[in-house]
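Provenance

Sequences were taken from public entries as deposited. Structures were produced by running a predictor on each sequence independently, with no templates supplied. The record for tRNA (guanine(9)-N(1))-methyltransferase from Salix suchowensis is shown for reference.
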Amino acid sequence: MEGEKETMQNGQNTLENSQPTTLSKNAKKKLLKQQKWEAKKAEKKAQTKEQKQKEGERKRKEWEEKLSSCASEEERLKLIESRRELRKERMGKRAEEKEEKTQRLRKAKDFGLNIVIDLGFADLMTDSEIHSLVQQIIYCYAVNRRCASPGHLWLTGCSGEMENQLQRLSGFDRWIIEKESQSYIEALQDQKENLVYLTADSETVLDELDLKKIYIVGGLVDRNRWKGLTMKKANEQGIQTAKLPISSYLKMSSSQVLTVNQVVEILLKFVETKDWKTSFFQVIPQRKRGETDPEEPEGVDREELEDEDEPSEKKRQCDEVPSAQLN
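Predicted structure for tRNA (guanine(9)-N(1))-methyltransferase:
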């Protein structure tokens, strides 16, 4: 009898757990919007793949036609050798560009803008949120690596599940980036007076960037569960805070948040342009801007990352999830 009761109870629990969760009207809208975005993303990816395949097939046919049109075997061999030399030259150029990027990153340790991504919030995030943050970090590194004037990037509090997920990334051990298991307050204790935590809750507006300062970006993907947490943390540690002057240049529309990679890219863009307006318009997606400027700068070219040592992240937005609340 007890076995039968237990079986019936388990069946009832299964039935209860299988009942669909009732979503609010707002939640249904968000879910529908997300589903449409995912479908559009998948469609675009399939189209890109198809175009690449067609282009590859076209080039292959052109090459075969060139070979078949050769009047002699000697001419055919010369054509093949010429193609090999061209490929060798292209590979050599790519190797030079890779070395230049590496040298710029090494120099950034001494001359670049210091940017810390604070990974000390992992215990407040779910596995999927940690994964989202890892994707944003991938993009941060890729964008910095392409910069003509890259920053000096730090990952602090890099331990536990966060470290595990980062270590799974191909080539992560070769990243030219500071990786600290300690918190920034411990790792940079001798430079505490130069630490500046970037948080929208700060009353200090960041007008200029100081190369002597160390700017901290909160690595927190929390879907707005922990509002004001970074400001509270900075106050308790007795370090400076500041916020980006976004409201001075544009009005945000729907989502009032920026991802970690967006904040980092804005800082790097300002180092390059010395212009906040240009930096915001080139980084923040148009769908997040309530008002656009008729003289809006063109977006930066988003070429695919083909270098084997660079993260293969292709999208501007790694994961559209909250990481920095805006005013």
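Residues 10-20, 292-327 have pLDDT under 50 and may be disordered.
The chain is about 50% helix and 10% strand.
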